[in-house]
Write a structure and sequence with these properties.
The N terminus is likely disordered. The protein has a 6-stranded antiparallel β-sheet with strand order 3-4-8-7-6-5. A hairpin with a 5-residue loop joins strand 6 and strand 7. Helix content is 10%, strand content 26%. It has one domain: Beta Complex (Metal Binding Protein, Guanine Nucleotide Exchange Factor, Chain A). The chain is α+β, with helices and mostly antiparallel strands. Belongs to the MsrB Met sulfoxide reductase family. One of its GO terms (molecular function) is metal ion binding. Its EC number is 1.8.4.12.
């Protein structure tokens, strides 16, 4: 399936069930997370477009998995895609997120999950900025933001 440019989509390369470093207890997560966070991370739900906490955030810092606190994305890679969800051109580092084929809703997409715990984060598309050609379209509900301290504050 061509999506408009020749950028290769990232892939974990496996269709087998994956073992993650962090094992999650669904009942504990229901207590820890908000209903929206649980729906997005554990049931592959999504938040409404333009409603997420981090959609318009422009502060310096890093974005972490709301389930396991794994670093996922850096603010320097965040851009305004106009999609209504936080968008990033790259992951924070090699292996911080994994991707897999998603055939839900009658279409082929590439799902993005936390590499450490397997939490659903969103999807990646190959219509991003020229630097990588990728657009990681991520639910705010799946993220925690930690800002960088400013000198003198």
């Amino acid at each position: 399936m061509s999506m408009g440019n020749s950028q290769q989509m990232p892939s974990s390369g496996s269709t087998e069930p994956e073992n993650y470093e962090v094992k999650v207890d669904k009942e504990e997560l229901k207590q820890k997370l908000t209903p929206l966070q649980y729906s997005c991370t554990q049931e592959k739900g999504t938040e409404r477009a333009f409603a997420g906490e981090y959609t318009d955030l422009k502060d310096d810092g890093n974005f972490y998995c709301v389930v396991c606190d794994n670093i996922l994305f850096k603010s320097g890679d965040k851009f305004d895609s106009g999609s209504g969800w936080p968008s990033f051109s790259d992951m924070a580092g090699q292996g911080t997120v994994k991707s897999k084929e998603d055939y839900s809703h009658g279409m082929l997409r590439t799902e993005v999950v936390c590499a450490k715990c397997g939490a659903h984060l969103g999807h990646v598309f190959n219509d991003g900025p020229k630097t990588t050609g990728l657009r990681y379209c991520i639910n705010s509900a799946c993220l925690n933001f930690k800002g960088e301290a400013k000198p003198g504050l």
